[in-house]
């Protein structure tokens, strides 16, 4: 993938709080990512598809191979600079005719980062449409401060909480993505997704990249999914890259390079 018209892309991001890159990853790698979700669910049958998350990442060679793909890092570099670390990553896989909604929230309200310099790449593993619960954003809301959170136990939802603010959903933009597309968004943008009412799964992988000058303030160091992916290490302590063990990890193209 060649990133074109960088100035316009950054202008769109500065104005709206998000932007989209099309056809970032090839079909074969996306197919492996889809297989990875099925493998994870078989390995962790106690977890819902929306709960394949952070603490699983650093010990999984394919997951680390995926988030360290140079095409993704080249995009991340546009927003956080050349020294890049992974903070967290999370598959959200909504089964057909079900799958919980994600209520309106700002990512930064949940994260132990100082300063809040971070960017999310949302990688489409499946086609993502309004019918199967695509991401929805309020363009321009990234210019707001981080709102307080309130618990929401009255409805099943992925986060169990939402931003304590009234959202005008008539202003929302639906982010329709094809497999291999990447949507990039700001930690302050209000975003959500509905339940999946279609016969098609909707799966995406969130990848949270930070510049290595952003400090992870969690008391757990190294943080469970913190990985140095490009450049100088900066202020954090990182997990080691995992070693591929046949029979223990999902096989994938190039796994021998991780052995």
Automatic annotation (TrEMBL):
Pfam families: PhyH
Entry keyword annotation includes rRNA-binding: no
Keyword Oxidoreductase: yes
Gene Ontology molecular function: 2-oxoglutarate-dependent dioxygenase activity; iron ion binding
Family annotation (Gene3D superfamilies): q2cbj1_9rhob like domain
UniProt superkingdom: Bacteria
PROSITE patterns reported for this sequence: FE2OG_OXY (PS51471)
Leader peptide range in chain numbering: none
Boundaries of every Fe2OG dioxygenase domain copy: 81-211
Keywords assigned by UniProt, alphabetized: Dioxygenase, Iron, Metal-binding, Oxidoreductase
Membership in a protein family: Belongs to the iron/ascorbate-dependent oxidoreductase family.
Protein's name in the database: Ectoine hydroxylase-related dioxygenase (Phytanoyl-CoA dioxygenase family)
